[in-house]
Amino acid sequence: MSKSVILLGIESSCDDTAAAILKDGKLLANIVANQDIHKQYGGVVPELASRAHQQNIIPVVHQAILKAGINKEDINAIAFTRGPGLMGSLLVGTSFAKAFAMGLNIPLIEVNHMQAHILAHFITSPDLPKGEERQPEFPFLCLTVSGGHTQIVLVKDHFDMTVLGETIDDAAGEAFDKAAKIMNLPYPGGPLIDKYAALGNPLTFKFTKPQLPELNFSFSGLKTGFMNFINKETSKNPNFVTENLNDICASIQHTIIEILMDKLKKAALQTGIQHIAIAGGVSANSGLRKELLKNEELLGWKVFIPAFQYCTDNAAMIAMTGYLKFLKKDFTTQATTPSARYSIA
Questions:
Q1: Which domains are assigned to the chain?
Q2: For labelling alongside 302, which of 44, 88, 139, 211 has CA 20 to 30 A away?
Q3: The whole model's pTM is what?
Q4: In angstroms, how far is the first alpha carbon of the chain from the final one?
């Protein structure tokens, strides 16, 4: 009888410190510590983020081990986020993982954060509601959308991925947060826009969509256009945002989703692939989820949407990716260093 594989995953790419335990590919624990300190600054402050990671990482790992009902000596390997992300944050997670692996004399596995978002679709857990445990079949297209990245990825296998298109400037998540900041909504603004958008009319206000060739994205022009629109309207009526908040949120969210969906439809048409997945923090957006499910009926797609807890940064996706790499004996060494820019390929 083969021995079970127990793996610890560490995620520290931005402002969430997370640890997860997997046993034979099944999730036993997934703990996340958020950093509320950034709310007062309207965005993530890298130096504060790295300090908070140093404070949080040991308690978070301890809680994950306790919840999983194991001892640290039972762990067979440790997977960690090598990048992309904030260098200071990555350093904390990388240093902890290297020290932990050295202390227990177990293998070390480096993980690409964006690759892990895609492989979150393969997490199996007893906590997943029925219908959310489906896994996409290869090949599939994945729209990966977060605060720092927007990509359409052709996924041929767990570790055979090709970026078909990506943002040439700002990411979709950044556009949501910037629009919220322009309206003086607290950080993080993306979820608030989603909340108010549900109460508004998405066709009330029109915003210009960028016309980019192929499958690439751009959101900088939309951000500038939205800022100019709000400035113009508030100069005429200082209460414009307050009086029209729901409709403004619905309209900007509608525009961002349209930009994303136009490119995704184009990619599906070009490749002939009908299995479509989403990943990353923005995949938690209810408007985007509804639009994808609508196109599942209209275009005959088979859509895969991750559970909410696996959309935002989490260690379960790091552990899952690490487990798949463990099976391939794809280990790294103590000489490894974090990489703020780390290609998915």
A1: 6-129+311-327 (3.30.420.40), 140-305 (3.30.420.40)
A2: 211
A3: 0.94
A4: 36
